[in-house]
């Protein structure tokens, strides 16, 4: 099926009409294929779901729709002020549509918005972190047991390192020699896994977003304020330290996640501070002392773990994250390890921001 045939078929499925149908990629997500489908003055986001990553697509949609419903109720009661990302039904009242054995869904297009891949300044970081904090606060009375586990052990660092070890042993695509330094670096981080095992039992399980990267929220084009938290695909129960940590991972560096300018990859202190301020404010009445204390660990774990995941995928021949060139995952891994090392080096200046 050509791009245009897909566009026509999706336009019919979602009742967009037949006038001047256009389709174009939007955003820089690594997992799904995200497109803006337009016809006349109507537009929706259509996404081809990556069913290798998300085998239970129905579970994924059900999860997101439960969250949609909860947030909508909050918004109707003036307890949540952001826009809500919503699924669109097909003409047959389905949320999933099959095209040529590929699985598609549609989302309402949130217009007048933009996403960022690199945070510009502290003010933007506060706005984004505050939006993720509002999202977490709004889900505080949502029973996360209602959510199916879309990806088991998603933020289990020990499991991620064990997956890396499997790929090292297999060396499927003969890439081990090209990344032995990074592999040795990972294996040497055992103390982080030990620290995590000690801390987790003291933390409450929360309904988490689990992918709080900067491009998973939308800013308003005119006011530059927060417009919506998006990409609810990995919402599951978990620990807030990982949502905090993924913000540190994706907001703090002045370089994009795949930049090879490693000399410039570092944690910007004012951005770290801004994340703490923005995220903690909406949660201050419910956040426990142990959780606030765990945020430092969450930052270390997320920077290191996503690096491990990129490296694992590189060793496996790039089966998980979408890539633009063969060494892309290795470049991403190197970038994340540089960021992790910057975090460790700046502990004494950064950590005080987490004191009450
Ligand atoms: P992935 O799961 O691949 O990360 P996302 O759902 O995060 O896909 O979408 C990728 C990008 O597409 C986002 O970063 C954002 O720029 C854009 N986007 C996604 N959904 C919408 C929407 N409903 N309205 C406007 N832009 C969107
Ligand atoms: C993926 O889907 P996207 O691009 O928002 C990944 C995250 C990683 C991130 C790294 C389902 O997020 O876990 O942290 O890439 N999502 C999934 O940039 O694996
Ligand atoms: Mg995304």
Strand content: 5-15%
Q: What is the number of independent domains?
A: 2
How does the overall form come out from the CA principal axes? globular
Report low-confidence residues grouped into runs of 5 or more: none
Q: What is the terminal separation in angstroms?
A: 57 Å
What is the mean predicted local confidence, pLDDT? Answer: 96
Decide which structural class fits the backbone.
alpha+beta
Please outline the major beta sheet: 6 strands, antiparallel
Radius of gyration: 20 Å
Number of beta-strand segments: 12
Q: Level of helix content? A: 40-55%
- What is the CATH architecture descriptor of the largest domain? Alpha-Beta Complex
Count of helix runs: 11
Kindly report the name of the CATH homologous superfamily of the largest domain: Aminoglycoside phosphotransferase (APH), C-terminal lobe
Features:
356 residues; alpha+beta; Phosphorylase Kinase, domain 1; Aminoglycoside 3'-phosphotransferase, Chain: A, domain 2; 2 domains; 6-stranded antiparallel beta sheet; 4-stranded mixed beta sheet; globular; binds adenosine-5'-diphosphate; binds 2-acetamido-2-deoxy-1-O-phosphono-alpha-D-glucopyranose; binds magnesium ion
């Amino acid at each position: 099926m050509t791009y245009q045939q897909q566009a026509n078929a999706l336009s019919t499925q979602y009742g967009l009409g037949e006038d001047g149908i256009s389709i174009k990629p939007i955003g820089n997500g690594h997992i799904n294929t995200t497109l803006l489908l337009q016809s006349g003055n109507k537009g929706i986001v259509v996404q081809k779901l990556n069913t290798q990553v998300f085998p239970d697509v129905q579970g994924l949609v059900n999860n997101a729709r439960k969250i949609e419903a909860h947030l909508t109720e909050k918004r109707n009661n003036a307890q949540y002020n952001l826009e809500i990302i919503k699924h669109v039904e097909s003409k047959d009242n389905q949320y999933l549509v099959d095209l040529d054995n590929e699985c598609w869904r549609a989302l309402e297009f949130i217009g007048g918005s933009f996403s960022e891949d690199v945070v510009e300044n502290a003010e933007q970081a506060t706005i984004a972190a505050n939006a993720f904090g509002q999202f977490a606060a709004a889900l505080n009375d949502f029973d996360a047991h209602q959510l199916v586990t879309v990806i088991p052990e998603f933020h289990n660092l020990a499991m991620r390192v064990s997956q890396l070890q499997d790929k090292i042993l297999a060396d499927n695509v003969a890439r081990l020699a090209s990344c032995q330094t990074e592999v040795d670096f990972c294996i040497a981080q055992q103390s982080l896994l030990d620290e995590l095992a000690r801390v987790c039992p003291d933390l409450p399980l929360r309904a988490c977003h689990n992918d709080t990267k900067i491009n998973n929220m939308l800013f308003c084009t005119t006011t530059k304020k927060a417009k919506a938290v998006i990409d609810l695909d990995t919402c599951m129960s978990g620990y807030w330290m990982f949502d905090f940590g993924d913000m540190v991972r994706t907001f703090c560096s002045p370089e994009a996640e795949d930049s090879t300018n490693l000399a410039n990859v570092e944690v910007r202190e004012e951005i770290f501070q801004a994340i703490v301020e923005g995220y903690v404010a909406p949660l201050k009445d419910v956040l426990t002392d142990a959780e606030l204390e765990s945020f430092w660990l969450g930052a270390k774990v997320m920077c290191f773990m996503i690096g491990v995941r990129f490296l694992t995928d590189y060793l496996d021949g790039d089966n998980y994250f979408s890539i633009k060139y063969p060494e892309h995952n290795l470049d991403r891994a190197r970038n994340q390890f540089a960021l992790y090392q910057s975090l460790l080096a700046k502990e004494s200046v950064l950590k005080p921001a987490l004191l009450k």
